[in-house]
Amino acid sequence: MLAARELGLAEYGVFAVFLALLVSATALHAGYVGDSLAVLDRFDLRLRASMVSSALLSFGLCGTAGVVFALALRDLGTGLVFAGMVVLWLAEETLRRLLIARMEFWKLVWNDVSYLLGTLVALGAWFLRAREVTMPMLFAAMGVGACTAVVVGLAQLPRSELRALRPGWAGMAEVASFAGWRAAQAALRPTALLLARVLVAQLISLAAVGLLEAARLVVAPLQVIINGAGSFLLAGYASGRVQGTRRASLLLTGVTLGGGVVLTLAAGPLGRLMTGAEVDRWLLLGWVVYLATWAAGLPFVTAVVARKRSRAVFLVRVVDSVAGLALAAVALTLDFPLALVPWLMAFGQLYSCLRLYSLAVTPPTPEIVKRSTTL
How many Cβ atoms from other residues are within 10 Å of residue 284's Cβ? Predict the structure, then answer.
């Protein structure tokens, strides 16, 4: 919200592209490391060592990618601040995933509150001195918030979760057989959104990316609900504490559509409050439909992943992401309105909803069970 109000439309578009890279990096890390913590036996010393190695490699690779990406858009100083924030963010996300795997959601709330407070305190202190908001300032404040959350997360976890944190490779093949496909699948959606933003920037302008993101910002609370539900459902299905997918899908879709209607009706005042300008109602409604199709398929995704069938989910999601991006690219090339972008990407998700529903409600065959056990 601060970026949208203070940076200007074009700069906010750049900020949104940076955030898209952060979300993609987080999805890869959470899919490989975080979901391994929830689904695999993290107390097995071989697997534990491989998860530690995976996390360290992820920190290094994502931090390096952050610098390279920033150099293409801005400068080395911004890149170093952004990369440092990404590494701290991923460290925080690792601890969050441990809390999720333990089904300790109130501790997770306190962890996230500490991030928010740390970010706001740092941002407020720097703003009082500089009297302006800049992009590196926002990234640095997010880094301070992430560091605060890391400290709080470490304090909340029992010693059993923090013992024997030594890197190793003995169990990497077993971890990779599950986590490789899962990470690739988890990163598909944010990467598709990142590429959509790049397409809009290249075919229209960075200011158009700002418009696209301003509408998405208004419906961001719905995305928070969906993300939280996904984390809960995966941990619940993996531990056997949660059953049923159709009811969860209907409930999550209904909440998303109901909340989306309310947000669309209040688009005028909400847009002015959150972004400082009006937002396109059709663009906003397109994001609501996009989130609703995402919400509809999410319980099926988590149920299938909990059975360790990450590869099957990945293949379905590839079709979904490529179809949505291709439709958006054609529409932008032919000069169709920007508001069509989220609608077309939502259309690609309809296939995955139906296919994943079929996978989730079909009992696994003996061959699949045997393969999962072997992996």
Answer: 24
Q: How many CA atoms lie within 13 A of 134 on its CB side?
A: 13
Angle at 66 between CA 61 and CA 69, to 5 degrees: 120
The one-letter code for the residue type at 54 is S
For the segment 43-92, what is each residue's pLDDT rounded down to a tens digit?
A: 888 999 999 999 999 999 999 999 998 888 888 888 899 999 999 999 99
Nearest residue to 260 (alpha-carbon basis) of 210, 294, 301? 294
Query: Are the beta carbons of 201 and 208 closer than 8 angstroms?
Result: yes
Pair of tokens at residue 367: 């061959």
Q: How many CB atoms lie within 10 A of CB 257?
A: 17
Identity (one letter) of the amino acid at 285? L
> At 155, phi and psi to the nearest 5?
-70, -30
| CA separation for the pair 352, 50 (Å, rounded) | 31
CA distance 287 to 338: 12
Q: Which residue, 127, 51, 119, 53, is CA-closest to 89?
A: 119
* 38 Cβ neighbours under 8 A, 6+ residues apart: 97, 100, 101, 234, 235, 238
Within a 13 Å sphere around the CA of 232, how many CA atoms are in the beta-carbon half? 15
pLDDT tens readout for residues 204-262: 988 888 889 888 989 989 998 998 888 788 778 877 776 778 888 899 999 999 999 99
- For the CA atoms of 314, 315, 320, 326, the dihedral, rounded to the nearest 10 degrees, stands at 110
